[in-house]
Design brief:
The protein is an alpha/beta fold. The protein contains 13 helices and 20 strands. Helix 3 (106-113) packs across helix 6 and helix 4 (117-131) packs antiparallel against helix 5 (135-142). The longest helix is centred in the N-terminal third of the chain and has 20 residues, at 50-69. It is globular.
Amino acid sequence: MILTNNDFKIDVTSEIGSLRSLLIHSPDSGLGKVVPSKAQDWLFEDIVHLDTMRKNEYDYYVKLLLYFLDPDKIKGKLQQIDDDADRLFFKPDNIAFHSSNKVIEIQTLLADILQQYDIREKLTASVCAIESCNYRLQEQLINTDPVELAKIFISGSLNNEEMIFAPIPNLIFSRDIGIAVNNHMLLNKPAKKARFRETLLARYIFFNHPLFAAYSNNILEIPETAQHFLRPGEDSLEKTTLEGGDVMMVSPQHLIIGCSERTSISGANEAIKLLFDNDVVKKVTVVKIPHKRDYMHIDTVFTQVKRDTWVLLRSLAVGEAPLEEQEPISWFADKKQKDRAEIVQFEKDKKPRLFGCIEDLLADISENDLQSKTKTKFIYSGNSTFPFDAREQWTDSCNLLAIKEGVVLGYDRNDKTVEAFKQNGFAIIRVNELLQKFETGELDPQEMTDTLILMPSAELSRARGGFHCMSMPLLREKVV
């Protein structure tokens, strides 16, 4: 049965409005087949233990999202769900799957569109071309059951055993394949070959699934630059790339695009032209951060918590130290080598505006775009204490998902960052305790305020992405 939702809308105007629907992908069997020799090629720092990642970590994320976004799917059933050793509630190919049309699973949408023979034929041919499959395998795949074929396209394996092409383990980071900008979808252009198949699948889903039919004219694809095929080499810095972790919809008319290890200046340039030409937003700010694996995307450096509150890595976000604070040695340092951001804001037909540092930009968003009446507050990774600031930023202390304003999800391992949240007046609660309170009615998700929800993270954090990465919001309530 094809997933439907008569009330479905795409409309995201902020990073903090109450979340009403999003796209996710639960860890699949392909993640459990990442081998050490290919881990870095497939953009993983390490191999992970799949069963632990699923049952002890990611499943909590799904349950939490359902209590906030689609409580009828879970309320009163928590014990039954937890008692099922086979986890059928979390498996998209099983009849007992939750099938929420608000917490939407990518694999479900893929299986839906593959029911159409012409789509199945075209997409199979495209995947086989990317993966260099032989003709007989292509014919076999075309005639495979759609639900099973969706699993194969994602995991890379036939019958969960025989690997026929590489998995796409990064699909759990659903934000990177596309971003909702107001009522438009901006699809990505990934920097690494390991993510090409994700982009292909996403493109077919958004253009062919009935859920998105009303938005077919609002899907934006970033073009390559003219005569891009004449560029020398395969890894030219001029490649046109853009990933969703570098895109933030911070207010109804303002988008941030990061230039990073994964998003190029050319990608940002093409995106800005596309957004302005289609009158999607009026203002785009480009934040260029050092091209380092430490940072990867801008959402590993900062995310928004409330209208007036952000969490960020202080060492990259502040301006130069005042002269009176500088030691003599700083006068002889190579300024070009210092980790700092370059920030330029563009408005259509206006002169670009420069910002001195990330903190200045975020304060301007809070106080001018979002009309905050209070001074902007910053919560720092590792409580701005060396070496915990860098350690905890590496394990995604700055990569938080606001499920509603002031209620954010983060990893339980970032102890010093948790202290910083406490010092800024936030309640701290572990997800397993919170779910029990939701189930008994002791707490109402819609009435929560100023809370950091701690999520288990032993395996997920080793995949190098937090909950901001693991979410593609499609609908948020407007911030008023």
